[in-house]
Amino acid sequence: MTNNKLISPRKPRYAVVLFGPEGQGSFNESGLQGVRKSRLAGYEVDVLWVAGQSAQQRAEEMSVLGGASFDLILAHGGQGDGPVQILAERWPAQAFVVTQGSWSAPNVARYEVLQEQSAFLAGVLASQWSQTGSVGHFSGEKVPPGLRGRAAYADGLRSAGFHGDLATLFCGHQHRPGWAKTCVSQMIEQTGLDIVFAMIDGGRPGVTQACREHGAAQIGNVLNWVERDPEVFVASAICDSGEALFRAIQDHERGALPLGGYRASGLEEPELVRLEMGARVTAKHRAIVEEWAHKLVSGQHLIELSYSGAEFSLPKAELVS
Q1: What span, in angstroms and rounded, lies between the C-alpha atoms of 272 and 265?
Q2: Backbone phi and psi for residue 281, each to the nearest 5 degrees, phi listed first
Q3: Where are the strands (E) in 171-270, listed by range?
Q4: Which of 48, 93, 158, 160 has the fewest CB atoms within 10 Å, i.e. the most exposed one?
Q5: For residue 220, which of 195, 241, 242 has the smallest C-alpha distance?
Q6: Within 13 Å and on the Cβ side, how many CA atoms surround 190?
Q7: Structure confidence by residue, pLDDT tens digits, 270-290
């Protein structure tokens, strides 16, 4: 007797890779929001936390995802460029996505939410805010999106007429609040900066503590830090990078994943990219920021994405957690 029972096809499985200590960091928090949205939409998504610092270490930890267990592996953030390059060559039949990255291959798609646009607007605001003529930029690893963000911030300062000093530092670690506090404290003490744009993840509490103790204002990134701590944060360069994960998964399910290609979203979608400003920002300064946002969306201004200025020297202090 013939069995005419239909067999349902297997649902695709997705793996999202987050870099850093589990549960830490605003960028990773945004990634988890993308995971939750994907799961609510009915997608089967696993999460892997990777703690390694080098590309080789990260690739080794990600190797547990091999064996064709997942239809798509998504590395969240520029930290994924190095390990995905290693694994994409090792597993040519495996499809990958890197969000906020800069490296692609025939089996790798790039998805990006344009942090540099909100970083540029952070520079515009900082140019108007500073009373000391000294402003700061602080970040962790020198990955491409961080470098682009720093360059965009500097371009925003210049474009809005800032003629003061910019102190900029990559401390080498995204998730060490004690080290971040040491670095930012020394930056403030040595330069007199009164506002700092911090593109940092798990180290954020250290930056905030340093700003609070020294009376400096902070511009955050990725999430709405103004809402969370309006006493320290005057603005936040919103970049909903987790939405890129959801859209990549959605595109894969539809058969529209741009392997070997690139998709980006920016200020034209303000729910994803904008400069969120707090109550302390004046109407005059808001109008200046909005004017520059219009110039970016309309194409009247193209952001300079390279930076050749001096960098603040790392403190000669023992690394603290």
Answers
A1: 8
A2: -80, 125
A3: 195-199, 217-222, 233-239, 262-265
A4: 93
A5: 195
A6: 14
A7: 999 999 999 999 999 999 999
